[in-house]
Amino acid sequence: MAFLGISGMQYSGEMFAGARIIVAEDSNVFTSMISKRLKELFDIDVEICRSFEDLQVSYDKSSDPITLAISNINLPGAENGEALEYLVDLSIPTIVFTGTFHENMRDKLMAKDIVDYILKDNIFAVDLLAESICRFLTNHRHHVLIVDDSATARALLSSRLKRYNFRVSVAESGGKALEILKANRDIGLVITDYNMPDIDGFELTRRIRASIGSHELRIIGVSSSSNRLLSARFLKAGGNDFMLRPFIDEEFYCRVNQNLDTLLQIQSMRKERAVA
């Protein structure tokens, strides 16, 4: 596997020529850079839309579904964010690529359930965008199990992960989680709550680790408790990471990515050693 991007994610070299990607951006510089980078990395020929009208025409002209859109917030003919609203209303997965950013804008963007946002404020912007695109196009290879006795919490985490294109299973108890893991050996990440009525998160982690090692499965513990010792207990029980609720989307996605990246790196090294 070859490394791609700044975060250290691994990319297998798979091409995505079948993916239909729209780039709604009026800057000649950025459209040229994005087009060139995605072609050389993934063999993707993107569709460039330099105005809101171009975007509408591009959507209407073909019945082929749009896999992913990369959109500036403001386009000619849509100076108040209408292009992004248009894409969201059509339920098209969208990464926002923008040079205008502040906290209030961030809150509005995340409320729209976008996939990600990338800022144009550094020399690595296009590489970061390419990495975000690659993650979205490859996240389906990862199967994630959410374990929580709260239906609301399960739904929230599930919607977040599905927004990023992960395959997701859910369990309302530790016992159910063990059943799902036994039937789905492709699960690579478990996100489990601590406080559950049958088997708490610590005991669930111990039982998982009795048969599945960190080289096969990563475990992230979560809790709404203010007890800072919980993180230490989760890690001692065999967990790989821990997060206190409430957490923001960016942190959650980053932690998920880091754990799955580590899993792939470990598995890659084990394969190389087995061949050697």
UniProtKB/TrEMBL annotation:
The lineage of its organism: Bacteria, Pseudomonadati, Pseudomonadota, Alphaproteobacteria, Hyphomicrobiales. PROSITE patterns: RESPONSE_REGULATORY. Residues 20-135, 143-260 form the Response regulatory domain. One of its GO terms (biological process) is phosphorelay signal transduction system. The modification 4-aspartylphosphate is found at residue 193. Keywords: Phosphoprotein, Transcription, Transcription regulation. InterPro entries: Bact_response_regulator, CheY-like_superfamily, Sig_transdc_resp-reg_receiver. It comes from the Bacteria. This is Response regulator.
